[in-house]
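Retro notes - structure team

What went well: the batch runner handled both jobs without manual restarts.
What didn't: labels got mixed up in the shared folder, which is why I'm recording both outputs here explicitly, each with its sequence directly above its tokens.

Job 1
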Amino acid sequence: MKKDSIEKFLEKIKKLEKSSKLDLSSDEDLSVAVMNLISIEEHLFFSYGKTKNGEFLKYLDEVREMRKEMMKKLVKRKEGEVWCITKHLLSASMRLFEVGTKYLSRGEKGKAREFFEKSYNLYSLFWGINLGFVEVPEGKKESEKEIRFISKDLKKKESISIFEKLGEIVKRAVDCCRE
């Protein structure tokens, strides 16, 4: 994987999709479902906090178990750091998206665009990790926990941020319009 170019990797994805071994469209839908399950967990937590009604905690636990089950279908690497990072990337992406839609509904398109871009950047980082373009080392030292960009093809373009690089990968690899 590390030695392959992005084009070769995308060719592999296309071959796998044709042989029905990989369906990124379904995975994209599942990632949005996981985002919403995380949001439901948050709402149940706040509902409990406001009402102190223990039923909300029961529902929270049930939704959490469902979210974990769905994440297992989506997140290929299940080590602690990768699992947790990807969960929080989806959660933050969803929250930034929601803030962006609120600004958009108020007619503040510039502010909305800023939040949408940040949301998409986090979503792209999620896919970068899950498609193997971004490595999250499992070290104890702070320097070993850095997220490192693997792709040599895109690494050559020094003026482009990691989020722009990952955004390009996601645009090419994850196409929800393919049926």
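Job 2
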Amino acid sequence: MKKQKLTVYHYPPCDTCRAAVKSLKERGFELDLHNLWEETPSAAVLKKWIGLSGLPISKWFNVSGEAYRELGLKDKLPGMSEDDKIALLAGNGRLIKRPVVTDGQRVTVGYKEEEYNRVW
């Protein structure tokens, strides 16, 4: 039986992203790959995915990234509205925790082998 196609937003040079892509390919998934830095999802798409993921929006930020630190988001995010946070993510793919994987019904953010075993 052929597995469904997954859409993956990643950053190709990222070791974590490469490990995630390798894991999904080994599981037999066909992948539709997008460079998160070049094809950042729109605010509407991110809003939908955040809802599907069941995660708080704070989990969508790449808190270890340079852009996050440069913008001083650790101090700014708590006072921002959800729409402003989504607009920030949509405006800069470097702020989004990666990889983001979806089949249209489920969404995972980041890569943890245990989570991939459970979800994908």
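One thing worth noting from job 2: The first helix runs from residue 15 to 26.
We'll revisit the folder naming next retro.
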